[in-house]
Amino acid sequence: ETNTLPFHPFEMQQGDILRMEKEHQVLKEQLKEAQEKYEQLQSRSSEEIGALEELLKKSVEETEISKNELDWFHKDLDMQVKKWQQEKKENQENLKALRNTAKKQMDTNDRYLKTINEKEKQYNESLNTYLETSNKLANEKVKWEELIKKSQKTCQAYAERAVEAEISVLRNWKDTEVCKLNGKAADAEANLKVLKSLSSSASAAPQFKSQIDAWEIFLSNVKKQLEKVEAKYEEKIQRVKNGEQNCLTEMETLDLPPP
Questions:
Q1: Using CA atoms, how far apart are residues 171 and 238, in angstroms rounded to an integer?
Q2: Which ranges of the sequence are coiled-coil (predicted)?
Q3: Contact 257, 225 (CB under 8 A)
Q4: Does 232 reside within a domain?
């Protein structure tokens, strides 16, 4: 028969010892697991500590480098500040010079503006005077143009009358010369008629032959001279009509004495 009563004083109720053994076993396993985890953590911590120490060493080195860079940066900054201060000083001096130059330029511009205004006033006065004078001259020009037109018409009329007068004189000279030559030709023809009548008989012909020949030559020369005179005077008349000057000269003719 199985005893189911609690085992006093270790059990308050039946099975407490067995349950405690199980719990103890579980705790041992948990302790073992915790021990393994601790060892793993310790190993990993050693690795991490080594890495951190290496990182710290590197950081210290970088800090030294950064310190050197910082010193260099401070030196460079000091140089840049000095350079900037020098540039600022130069810029201030340049600005001061530019302001002085600008003031001088403004003063000069004011003088120029005053001069321009005075010149513009003088120009306007001169322009008004010019316009008044120009209007007067324009009116005078119109009057003179009208007078010139009238004078041109008068001159044209005088020129036409002068041409007509020159032509009239040339024709008178021509007619006079032609009349003289026609008279000589008529006399020569009359004398030839008489001489030819007297030499109609065979016995008298030799006696008058030389005279007849001389009068025929004379008549031929008179006719040639007549043609020449008419042609020359007609040429002069045409030249006068064409507007040529200095054509009013009497033609020199050959003196043709009768035989």
A1: 11
A2: 17-108, 219-246
A3: no
A4: yes
pTM score of the predicted model: 0.43
- Let me know if residue 139 belongs to a domain: no
User: Is there a contact between 256 and 218 (Cβ–Cβ < 8 Å)?
Assistant: yes
Other beta carbons less than 10 A from residue 222's beta carbon: 23
Residues 6+ apart with CB under 8 A from 223: 185
Distances (CA, A) of 66 to 73, 76, 78: 10, 15, 18
Q: Exposed (0-12), middle (13-18) or buried (19+): which is 157, by Cβ within 10 Å?
A: exposed
Q: Is 110 among the domain residues?
A: no
Q: How many domains in the chain?
A: 2
Per-residue pLDDT of the chain (259 residues; tens, 9 = 90+): 555 555 556 556 666 667 878 888 999 999 999 889 888 888 887 888 888 888 888 888 887 777 787 788 788 888 888 888 888 888 788 878 877 776 777 777 678 778 778 888 888 888 888 888 888 889 889 999 988 888 888 888 888 888 888 889 989 999 999 999 999 999 999 999 988 888 777 666 677 888 898 999 999 999 999 999 999 999 999 999 888 887 778 877 777 788 7
Q: How many CB atoms lie within 10 A of CB 174?
A: 19
Q: Quick check: is 88 in a domain?
A: no
* Dist CA 173 CA 230 (whole Å): 10
